[in-house]
Design a protein that fits this description.
By secondary structure, this protein is mainly β. About 10% of the residues lie in helices and about 45% in strands. The protein has one domain.
């Protein structure tokens, strides 16, 4: 199964992520109702890091919820011109 994220840049073939984007970030996510009433706060850790393979990055969000425990969303971003992505595109 192949998944792609294309929202970061329309021109990944000619550009790379600025090194200044890489790192580990920590902050709070506020969960609000449509009337802006805050109903919960969750600590979030965002990691955007290089991997040991070229043209690949780790994109990981960890939600540290006292109510539900840690929830991790872990992705790998792959530059579109890599053979793996080309194979996925050709086979659907």
């Amino acid at each position: 199964m192949c998944f792609f994220y294309s929202g970061i840049s329309q021109n990944l073939d000619t550009k790379k992520f600025p090194d200044s984007w890489l790192g580990i970030y920590d902050g709070n996510m506020y969960i609000v109702r449509t009337n802006s009433e805050r109903i919960d706060t969750v600590n979030v850790v965002f990691e955007f890091l290089t991997t040991n393979q070229t043209k690949r990055w780790t994109y990981r969000m960890t939600y540290k919820s006292p109510k539900y425990g840690d929830i991790v969303k872990d992705y790998e971003l792959i530059k579109p011109d890599t053979p793996m992505v080309q194979k996925c595109l050709s086979t659907g």
